[in-house]
Each structure stands twice: as structure tokens, then as C-alpha cells.
Amino acid sequence: MSELAVQENHYTMEEIAAQLGAASKSGPTIPTLKMNYEPDDAPLGSFYLKSGSNSPVSSHVYATENVRIRAFSNHIQYQHWDDKELVNKSILLKSQREEARDMLGGFACGMPEFETLMAMSPEERKKYEGMDRYRVIRGLITYTGKTIDGDEVAIENQPFKLETKRKNYGPFWHDVIKRLPNGMNLWDFESILSIDKRKNSYGKTYYVMRFNPQFANPLPMDQMTYDSLAYVTKLVTDENARINQAYKEALNIEREVGEAATIVDKVEQALDADVA
Are the C-beta atoms of 143 and 155 separated by less than 8 Å? Predict the structure, then answer.
């Protein structure tokens, strides 16, 4: 937790609650919470943390039960990926009523509404491949698991990021947000993770992450929790500031290109008139 101990800021709890949640490309790499789909590596449907190059978690630690998260964030973000490279992303949204400004000067990475997308033909939908709406969750995770070598490892209050889409986009809202008691915040309790194994209409197996919130066992607001919340709050503020700046710069470039094209067009018209 040392990298989350940011005590020099002065965010109030109201500011934290208003802005909570983020994903930042700068600073230390926070492990990403994943589900395992490769039976040769670990149990199918197990949870693990995918580590970055400078992450404190050096190898994958797998677990299928008693995986607990203390969520600090719940945001919506549109992302566009191409061959594992990020093309574009929107600001982090607290709700879909907000304007999803993106890095390239557009909205929602150009992704149409779900109903519009589903009404398109398969050929028309290909244009939007790699574009998805994500639920972005950040917090702390605790569990005991094993590496692929069989070594038991205890993970305690490890910062994590979770990005879910498609079939996994909705469960956190249905399992946790929709049921959240009045007066309780996300960070006031843990949720125990589980997985639903399902099959689609083609018989292909897929997994859905589910959350069992422990509302009856509230957790205290200690210094570690407050400092962690303050750090995440700064991340979302900085993340959205960068994307908003990129959005404005993209609009300026588009406007300058348009003005230049207009000037060229007028010059060509004048030259044509002279020739005539």
C-alpha cells in the first residue's frame, strides 16, 4: 500500500465520492484483475492479477474462491482498440447521461448506441470492431492463491483495476450498485467474487463475473482507506483532464484543417476566374 499513501492532498470525502474511479497511463502499474480461460495454466474460471512490468505482483496468483474486493470506483468508459493498441478512449463517466468526450475530438469513440448497432448488418458492424463500453472499477483485493508452480501466495489489500465489457459489463451494477443501502458507500464493504459458467446459442462456454456484497459486515474508514481513496480521486481528475485537453486539441486541429481547406478553395476559385 506504500504507493497509495498520498497524504499531502486535501480532498474532502464529498469530492472523493463525486469523482471516485480512474485509469491512468502514468505512474506505477496497477495489476489488472482477470479471469483465466487457459486450463493449461490454472483452473478454468479462476481469478488472477495480470501484472505490469513495474508491478508489485511479480507472477500470476490464481484463486477460485474467497476472493474479496473493496471497490473504490465505478465508472463508464468508451475505448477503441486495434491489434492490442489503444486508438482512442473517452473520459471516465459517472453515468451515461454525461457527455463522453474522447481523445480524438469526438464522442464515445464513435461507437453508436447499442440498439443502433444491433440493427446493423454484420458487414456494417465490422466498422465498429474494437470499440466497446467498459465498466472501470478500482480498489483493493485480498485472497490466497497459488502460482502455476504450486506456490501458495497471500495477496492482501493489493491495489487493482478491473475493466469489464459486454456480458460482464452489467453484473457489478446489478449485484452491487442497484442493491447499495442508503447511506453506504462502495468502500464501506467488501464483495466476494464468483463466476457463472454459461453457454451461448452456439454452445460456446463463457464466464460472467459476479459480486456478493457483504453489506452486513461494514469496514472502518481508516487512514489507509482514506489515503487510497484520495489517490484514486487524483487519478480520475488527472485522467479526465488529459482526455479533455486532447479533445480540445483535436477540435482545434480539425478547425485549422477546415480553415486551410477553405482558403485553398477560395484561391483556386480566384485563379479559375482569372483564367476565364
Answer: yes
